[in-house]
What we know:
CATH superfamily of the domain at 39-213: TPP-binding domain
Number of helices: 11
Order of helices and strands: HHHEHEHEHEHEHEHHH
Radius of gyration: 21 Å
CATH architecture of the domain at 39-213: 3-Layer(aba) Sandwich
Number of strands: 6
Distance between the termini: 15 Å
Largest sheet: 6 strands, parallel
CATH class of the domain at 39-213: Alpha Beta
Amino acid sequence: MFIAARLVTLYILLLLSGVIVLQIERAKRGFKVELRRIAGLEAMDEVVGRATEMGRPIHFSAGVGNLTTRGAPAMMASLEILGHLAWMSAKYGSRVITTVAQGDVFAVSEEIVKGAYLRAGRPDEYTPDMVRFLSPSQFAYAGGIAGIINREKCAANVIIGHFAAEAIYIAESAHLAGAIQIAGTTNMYQLPFFVASCDYTLIGEEIFAAGAYYSKNPVDLGALSGQDFARAFAIVLMLLGVALATMGDKSLADWLK
């Protein structure tokens, strides 16, 4: 059965899709595309600089997920961040220790770190112990990370990906070791712990912005800019709906049904 009121949803979808396509085309043609500032991604330079100055390594973890089922999208986004972080570390003579909990993530992480050192023109500086498989058991994995951070005296701890109950244990261990921390996950129930214990936190889908943020690819930049507009539009609609409902007017809610 045709429901006329649902046309509003279709119109909004077409509007937002059009904005995204428009921003992609503008980026392709060389127009400057503005992105909102994401402090956690901008802080990567600070992290590498701190580690280089102190002569101490950076620890990186994508969490306990894998690349096929559990937390796969977040893991993919996290590995993009690993590529940038490893390249920056190789470029400035720092060192990244990457710990993994799953076999498929281990194999991909090795290739990413090797490729980063190759792109930086320093393939000989890559060593096999830069990527370490610990355990698929989440708390054994977290315990292994805590030991590495303390033994290696890591200057920074970057934990972005799929995390569960082990998250606070890893973050608190790094905090006690004095490491600067950048964290992020799409698991909303873990974000409060990251916010409380880390210097910078990527909230939810912000970790998916990393590819565009670092690559500056016009298509990625345009799509990300269009999605930012969609978020702003959704916030405006919600605030308008709250205001109208507070005044006893439910017309907007009925209009959007």
